[in-house]
Amino acid sequence: MDRVLILLGVGLIIAGLAWRLGLLEWFGRLPGDIRIEGERGGFYFPITSMLLISVLLSLLLGLWRR
């Protein structure tokens, strides 16, 4: 369990640095992400972004188990 937590922490640090450096600006603006903006506020539902994360995590976990 400690190994998983360490790798998760390292992954989050790398993702945070990539976000901070602007390497992930495209994420969240993919085709299929629903964005509705009005005068009083907005609604955002990142369907495509969530599917991409799900596929990537499934691949990583599948490779980890082998």
C-alpha-based Rg, rounded = 15 Å
Mean of residue pLDDT values: 88
Q: How far apart, in Å, are the first and last alpha carbons?
A: 17 Å
Structural class from helices and strands? alpha+beta
Q: Poorly predicted ranges (pLDDT <50, ≥5 residues)?
A: none
Strand content: 5-15%
Secondary structure tally: strands = 2
Gross geometry: elongated
Please trace the helix and strand order, writing H or E for each element: HEEH
Supply the number of helical segments: 2
Written overview of the protein:
This protein is α+β, with helices and mostly antiparallel strands and 66 residues long. The protein has a domain at 24-66. It is built from two helices and two strands, in the order αββα. The protein has helices at residues 2-20, 47-65; strands spanning 34-37, 42-45. It has a two-stranded antiparallel sheet with strand order 1-2. Strand 1 (34-37) and strand 2 (42-45) form a beta hairpin. The radius of gyration is 15 Å and the shape is elongated.
